[in-house]
Amino acid sequence: AGVLAAHKITASSPDTDLPTVSGLRKMGVNFTVSNKDTVKSSDVLFLAVKPPIIPFILEEVGPDIEARHIVVSCAAGVTISSIEKKLSTFCPTPKVIRCMTNTPVIVREGATVYATGTHADVEDGKLLEQLMASVGFCTEVEEDLIDAVTGLSGSGPAYAFTALDALADGGVKMGLPRRLAVRLGAQALLGAAKMLLESEQHPGQLKDNVCSPGGATIHALHFLESGGFRSLLINAVEASCIRTRELQHLADQEKISPAAIKKTLLDKVKLESPSLSVASASKVSLFTSKSKKN
Amino acid sequence: RRGCDPGAWPRAAMEASELWVGFVGAGRMAGGLVRGLLQAGKVPASNVLASAPSDKNLDAWRELGCRTTHCNLEVVHRSTLVFLATKPHILPGVLEEIRPAVGSHHIVVSLVAGVTIQTLQRLLPPWTKVLRIMPNLPCVVQAGAMVFSRGTNAGDEEAALLQSLLSSCGLCEEVPESYIDIHTGLSGSGVAYVYLFAEALAEGAVKMGMPGALASRIAAQTLLGAAKMLLETGEHPAKLRGDVCTPGGTTIYALHQLEKGALRATVMDAVEAATNRACDMAKD
């Protein structure tokens, strides 16, 4: 999106064999195996590790967090207060922002929400918003809504991929070649989403506009209704949200012990704090996408 | 039919201000329509003549100030606008009976379920202006939904007359005849679906501890109010539904239950079943 120059981005991971690592290197991002180096050379720090790893990362990098740092956690189910609590042993007023985004940031059509922590200022939130708005939609929310957002737009792309796979199957069943079926299905959903975002009308009205009396579409919709299509989607969002809360609950209790982390990962880490066994990032976030547009 | 002497009656006049309205058959639907017409002051009761085989139904008509008879031919002779409101299996016999008296000045409007314009025109003289109407029960309280279609000889004047008269009973729209069976499935029978829904709503409330009579009245008022908002705001029902749903609130929880039960599909199935049945019955 051209919001940030690649050389201003540092990423760290213990595992240098990941395909994401070489991808980042090619983009000109600075790469290191040291989390501490990443912290030292950053102002905005995205924590993009799996949720159970967060407490260990915070222990590791806590001493290096300074007043200028904005710590942004993208970890599902990890609360601002848990991060602030961990960091407060090292830094009196850590700036923490929690965000929930989704995979289509890769094509700059992400859906991101964020909630600011106790010591994060309005400008800090706005800075994050500016960054994330460059890769899609971004808005501030109350923290207690983030689990619901996870259920809806966090997991949402998976629901869409499932739907697209099935739609393509339908097309293939009725005679279309697979590639064309996938292409048309994806375009149909993309177009519909775009219409909805650009329209004042309710999706129910937009649906009606497609359904000519006695026509093909209304016949198809009846099938969807008979199968409980709507309730399945409601169930899915609910399930994802509830599971996120469960995981958060587990994380709060810090039930994940170092033993639960892959031994192979531990082996690869050069420990900077020998008193702790820590595994560092097993994945790295992409801050900007390979933008196809200017 | 006894004692019918055509020579004894004056021919119905078609004066500008006076419309003579006749009803062949005086059952509940006909009664609903006439109440609407009278309430709206469209036709004076003394200009209305209804026939039925027994006095059972006719008492109510006389109470309204209408004239009554046991002779179908008399109704045709003394009316310009003739509503046919018999039961379907009775109609062919009645048409045969009145056929000789039907003239080109008559407007014949059939309320009879399942009898097509084609059938009506076949059993009536070729010059007859025929229209077919499908009302629904709430015409009785002037909140009906009616659709009508015209036959070959019925023109704009007749359609406009019917529309103007029957708007007094509720919503009245002209449609292609193919919509009439759909109207049956949607609104003719549809009234029963609403009664079922109202009953279920009330039962839910009773389960949660509310007395039945109160629950029923509230259920009815809820349906009335919601329908009124739909009609008056002109908003899409999905939008109105969304307006009621506060995030994480009671309504969305309840709606989820309805969606789980595939209520929408079931209702679509019901409308489809009734429409198909109407089509099948018309063919008999």
Automatic annotation (TrEMBL), chain A:
UniProt pathway annotation: Amino-acid biosynthesis; L-proline biosynthesis; L-proline from L-glutamate 5-semialdehyde: step 1/1
Subcellular location as annotated: Mitochondrion
Keyword Hydrolase: no
EC category: oxidoreductase
Catalytic activity, EC: 1.5.1.2
Top-level division of the source organism's lineage: Eukaryota
Keywords for this protein: Acetylation, Amino-acid biosynthesis, Mitochondrion, NADP, Oxidoreductase, Phosphoprotein, Proline biosynthesis
Domain Pyrroline-5-carboxylate reductase dimerisation positions: 143-247
Residues that coordinate or bind NADPH: 35
Any one GO molecular function term: pyrroline-5-carboxylate reductase activity
Binding residue positions for NADP(+): 13, 48-51, 74-76
Record GO cellular component, one term: mitochondrion
Reaction catalysis annotation: L-proline + NADP(+) = (S)-1-pyrroline-5-carboxylate + NADPH + 2 H(+); L-proline + NAD(+) = (S)-1-pyrroline-5-carboxylate + NADH + 2 H(+)
Pyrroline-5-carboxylate reductase catalytic N-terminal domain residues: 7-77
Biological processes annotated in GO: cellular response to oxidative stress; L-proline biosynthetic process
Family affiliation: Belongs to the pyrroline-5-carboxylate reductase family.
Protein name per UniProt: Pyrroline-5-carboxylate reductase
Originating species: Polioptila caerulea
Top-level taxonomy: Eukaryota, Metazoa, Chordata, Craniata, Vertebrata
Gene designation: Pycr2
Automatic annotation (TrEMBL), chain B:
Compartments it resides in: Cytoplasm
Enzyme class: oxidoreductase
Annotated residues for binding of NADPH: 72
Alphabetically ordered keywords of this record: Amino-acid biosynthesis, Cytoplasm, NADP, Oxidoreductase, Proline biosynthesis
Main location per the UniProt record: cytoplasm
Keyword Amino-acid biosynthesis carried by entry: yes
Catalyzed reaction equations: L-proline + NAD(+) = (S)-1-pyrroline-5-carboxylate + NADH + 2 H(+); L-proline + NADP(+) = (S)-1-pyrroline-5-carboxylate + NADPH + 2 H(+)
Domain Pyrroline-5-carboxylate reductase dimerisation residues, every copy: 177-279
Residue ranges of domain Pyrroline-5-carboxylate reductase catalytic N-terminal in the record: 21-114
Subunit (UniProt): Homodecamer; composed of 5 homodimers.
Matching PANTHER family: PYRROLINE-5-CARBOXYLATE REDUCTASE (PTHR11645), PYRROLINE-5-CARBOXYLATE REDUCTASE 3 (PTHR11645:SF0)
Official protein name in the record: Pyrroline-5-carboxylate reductase
Annotated organism of origin: Polioptila caerulea (Blue-grey gnatcatcher)
Gene behind the chain: Pycr3
